[in-house]
Write a structure and sequence with these properties.
- The protein is α/β, with parallel strands linked by helices.
- The chain has two domains: 143 residues, 3-Layer(aba) Sandwich (Rossmann fold); 206 residues, Dihydrodipicolinate Reductase, domain 2 (2-Layer Sandwich), CATH 3.30.360.10.
- Helix content is 34%, strand content 21%.
- It has a nine-stranded mixed beta sheet. A six-stranded parallel beta sheet has the order 3-2-1-4-5-6, sandwiched between helices.
- A hairpin with a 2-residue loop joins strand 11 and strand 12.
- Helix 4 runs parallel beside helix 5, helix 6 packs parallel to helix 9 and helix 9 crosses helix 12.
- The chain starts with 5 loop residues before the first strand and ends in a 19-residue tail after the last helix.
């Protein structure tokens, strides 16, 4: 690519897809070359707004020859189908989160990207936030706290019933493939599993506690890790005014994240060593508290993921959010839903056939909502 510009088309023009179109305009490494949506009036309006050709069929858009890559911002179930078609036709793909509803489909996307040697990224833009960059540095590069012994992730959200009534597809198995786990929680699940790793077993409870929806609005899960560590995970859309909280306890210290604030506690000796070295029955291990300084002056947001996607295609940098890493969050989500529905512990990797069969049963009973006022509006807190 001698011109050092990556030509990008956007497929799916809801609030988020339209926001991506606007962001591309400000990225010097990228150029918006088409828009696509099944709703002709929406596609036409966005095409006119951005001065680019519009399509209503993603196949025509992908085969138009206009683009080097696509951003997929459709409903979750369509991500794999569109991505695989794009890979097969020589295009790179940046998929909105999650990459897929099921681990089976996620596997297929990753396989297709590798087979066709195309760049595959997922829109986990929170990876660019200063506190997340610092947390990953502490946990994955410096490995300050040593081997992980316990984890905790509490990720509360709030949504009114009006939110769920804003689309025919929302909060249905047929339209969305899940509730809070697959819609609100993937970003923090991505961060949690990136720094703590995937558990090998999940025992979860899921339910629609407050809202009139098919899918879950509350999840509580006990986690077990390969090394014997235990963990706990909780998420909900029933809890206003709450803050994200994460704890990762290791052999040599622990990390506590409250909102976007990080506190590190360093032990003056590994726990396993101190426990048997201590002579006094009341002797305790010293934990030195350190408030972690975070550099706010780093590029963040959806635009940075798009810029990095283009930069990777141009072979100038590595992906911040590789598509294959998006499999971790899908494994976690599927494990929680499967365990919640069967009432039994579920091992990770999730049994693909068992989960596919569960989805078939849930979809068979699912009903697309009627009489709702469809709104294509993205949460203003995240549309940047």
């Amino acid at each position: 690519m001698g011109n050092e510009i990556v030509k990008i088309g956007v497929i799916g023009l809801g609030g988020m897809g339209s926001a991506h179109c606007r962001m591309i305009k400000d990225i010097k490494e990228a150029e918006l070359v088409f828009v696509c949506d099944v709703a002709k009036e929406v596609a036409k309006a966005r095409g006119e707004e951005f001065g680019v050709p519009y399509f209503t069929d993603y196949r025509e858009a992908i085969k138009s020859g206009l683009a080097d890559g696509v951003i997929i911002a459709t409903h979750h179930w369509l991500h794999p189908e569109i991505a695989i078609y794009a890979f097969k036709n020589g295009l790179h793909v940046l998929s909105e989160k999650p990459i897929a509803v099921t681990v089976t489909d996620a596997d297929k996307m990753i396989k297709s990207a590798k087979k066709n040697k195309k760049v595959f990224a997922v829109m986990y833009q929170r990876r660019t936030e200063p506190w997340v960059r610092k947390l990953k540095e502490i946990m994955l590069e410096d490995k300050i706290i040593g081997e992980i012994k316990r984890t905790l992730c509490v990720d509360p959200w709030y949504r009114a019933q009006a939110y769920y009534d804003s689309g025919t597809w929302r909060a249905t198995w047929k339209g969305e493939g899940g509730g809070v786990l697959i819609n609100q929680a993937p970003h923090t699940i991505d961060i949690f599993t990136a720094v703590a790793g995937l558990p090998v077993k999940v025992e979860a409870k899921t339910r629609a506690k407050l809202h009139k929806i098919e899918v879950e609005d509350e999840v509580s899960a006990f986690l077990e890790y390969k090394n014997g560590a235990w963990g706990y995970y909780y998420t909900t859309t029933c809890e206003p005014g709450s803050t994200f909280h994460m704890e990762i306890v290791g052999e040599k210290g622990k990390i506590i994240v409250n909102g976007t604030s990080i506190t590190l506690y360093r032990y003056n000796m590994p726990v396993s060593k101190f426990t048997y070295k201590a002579k006094s029955m009341w002797e305790s291990l010293e934990a030195k508290e350190e408030k972690i300084e975070i550099d706010p002056n780093v590029p963040t947001g959806h635009g940075e993921i798009i810029r990095n996607f283009a930069g990777t295609i141009l072979k100038k940098e590595k992906l911040i959010s590789p598509g294959e890493e998006g499999l971790k969050s899908v494994e976690f989500i599927n494990a929680c839903i499967l365990s919640g529905k069967t009432g039994k512990p579920v091992k990770i990797p999730v049994n693909r056939k068992e989960y596919d069969n569960l989805m078939k049963k849930l979809i068979a009973k699912s009903k697309i909502k009627k009489g709702v006022k469809v709104q294509r509006i993205t949460d203003p807190k995240f549309a940047k």
